[in-house]
Amino acid sequence: MFISEAYAQGAGGGFGGDSIMQFAPLILIFVVFYFLLIRPQQKKMKAHREMIGAVRRGDRVVTGGGMIGQVVKVIDANEVDVQIAEGVKVRMIKSTITDVIARGEPVKGARKGEEVEEEVDEDAPALPPPAPDVKRSGGFGGLFGPKK
To answer: CB under 8 Å to 55, separation ≥6 — which residues?
Structure first.
């Protein structure tokens, strides 16, 4: 009665160009997420896998728990022995290594990609001595320099 028949006929019932334009914002959001979130995360994971694969004896590493140690022995593709203190060795999964601080010297006589089992001198110190403590003043640590 009050509704004109022209309004009822104006609503197109087909699957045309308007429906593609409705999905355009969703497609644009997915593209933005891919380039800003997904792709950088994949690159970061690839770099971590390569770093873990290149861990060898003598490397100083940081574990997921924040402990710093030196790789004493690479057991297999998934496990390593890490010395975290003098005489304290821990067997750990390679994927828990978060960073390699310093690369060790290559094992003498090893070819590229080949591992050589070498005796480890238990009496020799594996970790370098810690840096001397410098007392800092104030609550902001190093902002105001060393204490005099």
So the answer is: 61, 71, 74, 80, 94, 97, 100
